[in-house]
Design brief:
The chain is α+β, with helices and mostly antiparallel strands. The chain is 32% helix and 33% strand. Helix 4 links the parallel strand 4 and strand 5.
């Protein structure tokens, strides 16, 4: 992806996106989380996309949106139960180009419009600062076992403005 100043385009997830999103998921983890987790931890985490059918089912079972830059898929995010920021992944070549912020903005607005007052995320160590900068507050530290590896994350929460308060 060449550098550009264009804003990311957002659209709903389509079942045909699953293979590309699985690749993006792996690339994001292996590159952007490499400073925060060990090789075996990264491999265990990225393996969640190995079963493409199960990965596609997880994406379809949540409100999932896809971001593109310069005509290429650059990231995706999903919201589960209208209150849990389940996934937010950006392709390494699109990192720090507004993709994550555009996805987070959209998810927060959608959740607020549907009446959610507080949104939460189990932020990876790689994503913790991103969410903190958006006003999410750390509530608890978690350890999760994935394929024999232990990975830490932090449950963070943010109070959303109600739709009525913004009108």
């Amino acid at each position: 992806m060449a550098r550009s100043v264009s804003a990311p385009g957002l659209r709903p997830y389509l079942p045909t996106d699953a293979p590309r999103l699985a690749q993006l998921f792996r690339a994001s983890i292996e590159t952007l989380a490499a400073e925060d987790y060990g090789e075996d931890q990264l491999a265990a985490w990225a393996a969640a996309a190995d079963d493409e059918e199960a990965f596609a089912k997880k994406l379809a079972g949540a409100l999932t949106i896809v971001a593109s830059l310069d005509g290429e898929i650059a990231g995706f995010a999903s919201l589960r139960d209208n209150k849990l920021f389940d996934m937010l992944y950006v392709h390494p070549r699109a990192a720090r180009r507004g993709v994550g912020s555009a996805l987070a903005d959209a998810m927060e607005k959608l959740a607020a419009a549907r009446g959610t007052r507080e949104i939460s995320v189990d932020a990876s160590d790689a994503a913790r600062d991103f969410f903190a900068a958006r006003g999410y507050v750390a509530h608890q530290r978690n350890m999760r076992e994935l394929r024999g590896e232990w990975l830490g994350n932090t449950t963070m929460k943010k109070t959303l403005e109600s739709k009525a308060a913004t009108q």
